Amino acid sequence: MISLVCSYKNNRSRSLVQNKVSLLLGIGGSRSTTTPPPLINHHRFRYSSSQPFVASSTRYESSKAQAQLEDFQQHDDQVIDFPGGKVAFTSEMRFISDTSHKRVPCYRVLDDDGELMTHTNHVQVSKELAVRMYSEMVTLQTMDSIFYEVQRQGRISFYLTSMGEEAVNIASAAALSSDDIILPQYREPGVLLWRGFTLQQIAHQCFGNTNDLGKGRQMPIHYGSNKHNYFTVSSPIATQLPQAVGAAYSLKMDGKNACAVTFCGDGATSEGDFHAGMNFAAVMEAPVIFIIRNNGWAISTPVEDQFRSDGIVVKGQAYGIWSIRVDGNDALAVYSAVHTAREIAIKEQRPVLIEALSYRVGHHSTSDDSTKYRPIDEIEYWKMERSPVNRFKRWVERNGWWSDKDELELRSSVRKQLMHAIQVAEKAQKPPLEDLFTDVYYQLSSNLEEQEKLLRKAIEKHPKDYPSDVPL
Amino acid sequence: MSTSMKRLGKWVSLVSKRGLSTSCIQKDVSENGVKSLNLYSAINQALHIALDTDPRAYVFGEDVGFGGVFRCTTGLADRFGKNRVFNTPLCEQGIVGFGIGLAAMGNRAIAEIQFADYIFPAFDQIVNEAAKFRYRSGNQFNCGGLTIRTPYGAVGHGGHYHSQSPEAFFCHVPGIKVVIPRSPKEAKGLLLSCIRDPNPIVFFEPKWLYRLAVEEVPEDDYMTPLSEAEVIRQGCDITLVGWGAQLSIMEQACLDAEKEGISCELIDLKTLIPWDKETVEASVKKTGRLLISHEAPVTGGFGAEISASILERCFSRLEAPVARVCGLDTPFPLVFEPFYMPTKNKKVCKFGCCNEGCNSTWLTAGGTRATSNRS
């Protein structure tokens, strides 16, 4: 038998541990969703199974290809001592098929009604934490709907919502420590909110005023905050993935009790940088978590046009990275998976891939009308029936931790805060002209000094050619 | 002038014997803390110093672990350990992306791209990420600790993909610096400056000179300032501007011209962006003539930028059009490399002082040299 999960060279002990934990985490197992999920001691791993995964009599059915691998007639006593490890011979010429007919199951804790699944195991969430998570999810939801309207009124140039993905945003943030370094895509502002970035700061950025930490240089939603260990958003897709490995490597070298966490969507996994990030992370043994939001759509491109694999979770194994598929609309499942992934990443000093299945309920951005390429019914279904906010709310309510009164108060308070923040941000001054030239380099270069002088002369001559609200 | 000639003389004379030899010319004699080193050894020394003086410095790239395909990283992994000097997967965008992340955490990330011809998969990471990292965050984050080292240029037998000079692509990107040394001593001082500069930098190393150029190199830790061009030969008739491996060819052209009584001023630009316009401007105002050389194809090359800028600044002082003697607008050819290259005689012909067949009026354009208005 060859190890199916692991391809590390000559590292037997690690292979066994990995196999066991893979089993525990239910990666690629053949269980239906009703069988008990794997055992995880909430804050400490307990490798309770002493039986190596590969020796299991249970046929590995989740993947046809993997089943085929096991079926190979192997000559275990004869191996090729190949660079990278020993490989057994087979006299059969057989190709491994492309995809499996059974897809990798999706870890969830709450069912569609927000009830805990039977025999579920997950990392415990206290009342205080649960209420805060729910509140932040509502805050994110409200922020999105209000800023979307503000853009529609023409008061800001652009906006992009996280609607439908509130659980991935907030629950992942809640499971991390503030020392963990976030390298976001652009649909994760909830992580920043969780860390204490205020609605006022969000508004300042979207209005590009003098209080925007980014000095009005980037489009709305390109937030970033050094104080909150949240790297500034950039528009190019997947570029942050190999960067996250570099950041994680730094944490590793410094012996920090922290990891790097990077987000991207399903479309990003087609980029070369996804490959670069995954492969570097595995080779460098970097403590980094890749959280891939598989929300079904990359602008108008459905996942069927994006890849032919069983989503993204299966790609981890090919790189030698642990991976798990999680219900991205189940806040408790996301919390548990990210919390556990963090422990693995830091304790084992290795990367973890999390594929969060979700749905992009909003349009790609305010420049997009998604009803042109997908049915409204589909959007409505995910918005109403599958809402991660509603599902989590039901669980919180069922625990007696949340009332209608709380709900009213929260929504009204968030709304008021947002209105105030928007008013303040809208009135605030634009950043001064000098901010156009600074920070290109550490120090102003001579060509920029020259260009600034020329520009100021041009403004003097034709002041009406330029926005009057930018202080000179 | 005489000192600069002396300084330049040694490596020029060796370089002029250019062939396909890969023999390492290196004296192991240390006199007054100065050692005769070839260019790769000078780079290697700079990397040793960089890692030794900053515990947060890292060297990585394809094959750097065993010393690198050009031996620039020899001995580093043994001395500083595999955590600080390591191989990466064969993936340029990964190398630069990783380097950006590492640098953004307050480290000196010294990345190697094995050949400049292969830097393009990393173009997005350099242009959209590294170059804008500080600006886009309002100076909250920066990857100023990133230095990308990469060998560039002709090598005699490199063909399309081991010979290119892609510097101009990067000179169009605000936020990064582009630096190219001409000799071992310069390479060491400039590389140390780049590594310690708080901006991301692409450092192109003239690979033909790795073994051929030998120079007295101080053994101590020294830095050569960036964005400062150097007049390495003074003259009054023509200004020649170039960088990297072209400098030795230009120096030979200057010597040939001198025999004909033409006095050339030679400037090594060293840093292409942000570049030292003032030094070039001052020289052209003196000589009235400018010739720029680079190995990269002439069209869209950085010579065009220098030409335009100098025309803006020195129009009334120019006695002839700015001349460019550069690579041809073809892919870099293998068999035809000697035809493609901006050779010494192509430059000399421009002066109009080579043998019959050259009827260049460039030098006499705008009046004779004797009557030209020089100050």
Key descriptive features of the protein:
heterodimer, A: 472 residues, alpha/beta, Rossmann fold, 3 domains, two-stranded antiparallel sheet, 9 strands, disordered N terminus, B: 375 residues, 19% strand
3D structure, described in words:
The complex is a heterodimer of chains A (472) and B (375). Chain A has helices spanning 12-25, 64-71, 127-152, 166-175, 189-194, 199-207, 240-253, 272-284, 313-319, 331-347, 376-384, 388-398, 404-427, 446-461; strands at 74-82, 85-90, 181-183, 260-265, 288-294, 297-298, 301-302, 322-327, 352-357. Chain A is 39% helix and 10% strand. By secondary structure, chain A is α/β, with parallel strands linked by helices. The longest helix of chain A is centred in the N-terminal third of the chain and has 26 residues, at 127-152. In chain A, a hairpin with a 2-residue loop joins strand 6 (297-298) and strand 7 (301-302). Chain A folds into 3 domains: 12-90, no CATH class; 127-427, Thiamin diphosphate (ThDP)-binding fold, Pyr/PP domains (Rossmann fold, 3-Layer(aba) Sandwich); 436-465. In chain A, the strands form 3 sheets. A 5-stranded parallel sheet of chain A has the order 3-4-5-9-8, with helices on both faces. Chain A has a two-stranded antiparallel ribbon with strand order 1-2. Chain A has a two-stranded antiparallel sheet with strand order 6-7. Chain A is globular and about 85 Å long. Chain A has 14 helices and 9 strands. In chain A, helix 3 packs across helix 13. By secondary structure, chain B is an alpha/beta fold. Chain B folds into 2 domains: 2-218, Thiamin diphosphate (ThDP)-binding fold, Pyr/PP domains (Rossmann fold); 230-351, Rossmann fold. In chain B, helix 2 packs parallel to helix 8 (184-196). The longest helix of chain B is centred in the N-terminal third of the chain and has 15 residues, at 39-53. Chain B is globular and about 60 Å long. At the A-B interface, helix 7, helix 8 and helix 14 of A face helix 4, helix 5 and helix 6 of B.
